Amino acid sequence: MISAARLAAAAEILDLIGAAQTPAEQHIGTYFRARRYAGSKDRRWVTEFVYRALRRQGELDWATVETGLEPSPRLRCFLSLLLFEGVVPEDLAKSWFGGPHGLPDLTEAEAAALAKVVTLDMSAMPAEAAGNFPKWLADKIIEQYGESAADVMQAYGHRAPVTLRVNALKATRDDILATLKEEGIDAEPTPFSPDGIILKDRLNLSRHPLLEGGRIELQDEAAQIAARLALAHPGMSVVDFCAGGGGKSLAMAAGMAHQGKIYAFDTNARRMRDIQARATRAGVTLIEPVAITGDDSDVDIFGPLVGSVDRVFVDAPCSGSGTWRRQPDQKWKLAPERLDELVALQGDILNRAAPLVAPGGRLVYATCSILEGENEAQITAFLLSHPEFSLLPVSALWDTAGLDGNWAQEVFAVTPTEGGRDGFFAAVLEKGAAR
Ligand SMILES: C[S@@+](CC[C@H](N)C(=O)[O-])C[C@H]1O[C@@H](n2cnc3c(N)ncnc32)[C@H](O)[C@@H]1O
């Protein structure tokens, strides 16, 4: 593909992403499956261009509005070239338009606006534009994180690393690090999780024999830490209440030495369809996927479990705000009403999960969100309405959970500012402890 065709492809994909809730990754996949003539270099160029335009949409749109035009995917492409690739306005038409697959020529208004863009004082940008967040979310982040808010938002301008979890049932971290080294893959241990490995380069390991043989899983370090904090021991009964693809179930099973039971619940049976295959690959036999409805009709499934489960892990549906480095399109799509719905759903799920916990058993609440309303506020509300539960400080569980380093706080709450981790939250609640 020539430059003009690549740019036109990026503009078309950005249009598609803006028009539907479907994740960006899927749009890009569908686009290139229908255009087999495009080479891998074209695909890589377009993908990176699209992701950068999404990550830095706040800056691009601020500059567009300053020139008097309405933001659009087409303008985001032009401005990306000018602001991030150093292309000068006069050269745009020479290499980036025309041909059978290129974009239609610039209008006069666009040409005038682009000439103005390069003269803008970018330091005049408001916090939400500089941080590349919608204003309503930037306001929340500023309120919650204060002086650190700019750093938190800036962290989303970087790509997330590829992080692996070594399956302790089949391998040690040293074995896997040695194998990766033999293959010329640069990697290092994660600072907190004793099972984690961060790759220095963003390699696609989805077909790698280590993954296919169940010796590793792809899992962010924060998720590994949360699973360890459940302290699921051999012989325990565990419910992974929002199991999805089974990432937390598999991580907990790795510490259970094939003894005990994990019921993997989810209201979306489709999301759970790979659990058994992943479990087989990992040598795990104790996971039983169970589709639930999320309403009162689950009583038949829950009945025998009420008051008997040692660990209930609630990896709640959430905004996903901790993972927006990987899915930058999602931060532009989340609406305040949707966040409210999610917060209500999280409260409802906690209420439904709580009765399953045995006296002395534990409920772990986790989200891949950095927003207080989905995290700390959810725990505060839960403890108020469930006096039979109390918060076990994560600081006190850290060593017992086999985690490296130290953790001084009562809950595990991280943003993508440190250690390469996704933003994440986990709190551990015990039932039956006196309050
Ligand atoms: C954050 S994802 C879980 C990710 C998964 N635990 C993992 O590690 O791969 C949240 C899951 O909650 C499920 N969910 C949504 N509403 C639910 C409900 N009322 N009860 C149980 N699960 C629900 C969603 O289908 C989704 O799979």
Automatic annotation (TrEMBL):
The record's Gene3D superfamilies line, in alphabetical order, gives: Sun protein, domain 3 (3.30.70.1170), Vaccinia Virus protein VP39 (3.40.50.150)
Q: Give the domain of life.
A: Bacteria
Domain SAM-dependent MTase RsmB/NOP-type, which positions?
A: 152-432
A Gene Ontology biological process noted in the UniProt record is:
methylation
- Protein keywords: Methyltransferase, RNA-binding, S-adenosyl-L-methionine, Transferase
Q: Where along the chain is the active site annotated?
A: 368
Where is S-adenosyl-L-methionine annotated to bind?
266, 296, 315
Which molecular-function annotations from GO does this UniProt entry contain? methyltransferase activity
**CDD domains to which the protein is assigned, alphabetical:** AdoMet_MTases
According to its UniProt record, which protein family does this protein belong to? Belongs to the class I-like SAM-binding methyltransferase superfamily. RsmB/NOP family.
- The identity of this protein, by name, is RsmB/NOP family class I SAM-dependent RNA methyltransferase
Q: Which organism is it from?
A: Sneathiella sedimenti
Q: What is the lineage of its organism?
A: Bacteria, Pseudomonadati, Pseudomonadota, Alphaproteobacteria, Sneathiellales
